[in-house]
């Protein structure tokens, strides 16, 4: 699996600097959720990269939509604008 390098850099920076960031992700039932949390750890498992939040919640890297101001390459910047 190819890694989304800008998004991976954003995750690694958040872990290294122990700063709280906004994490947007999609669940296994296709819900889009947003949390503001510390990313405690990033590690490799059989399923791929996994983030562990300070809350104990674990997210697969491929679930990420956006971390801080960096969006996944699977999403266009226009996905984050509101045409209300």
Write the layout of secondary structure elements.
Layout: H1 5-17, E1 20-26, E2 32-45, E3 48-53, E4 58-60, E5 64-67, E6 70-71
Antiparallel strand pairs: 1-2, 1-5, 2-3, 3-4, 5-6
Description of the structure:
The protein has 84 residues and is an alpha+beta fold. It has one domain (5-73): SH3 type barrels (Roll), CATH 2.30.30. It contains one helix and six strands. The protein has one helix spanning 5-17, and strands at residues 20-26, 32-45, 48-53, 58-60, 64-67, 70-71. A six-stranded antiparallel sheet has the order 4-3-2-1-5-6, covered by helices on one side. The longest helix is centred in the first third of the chain and has 13 residues, at 5-17. The mean pLDDT is 90.
Short description:
It contains 1 helix and 6 strands; from the N terminus they run H-E-E-E-E-E-E.
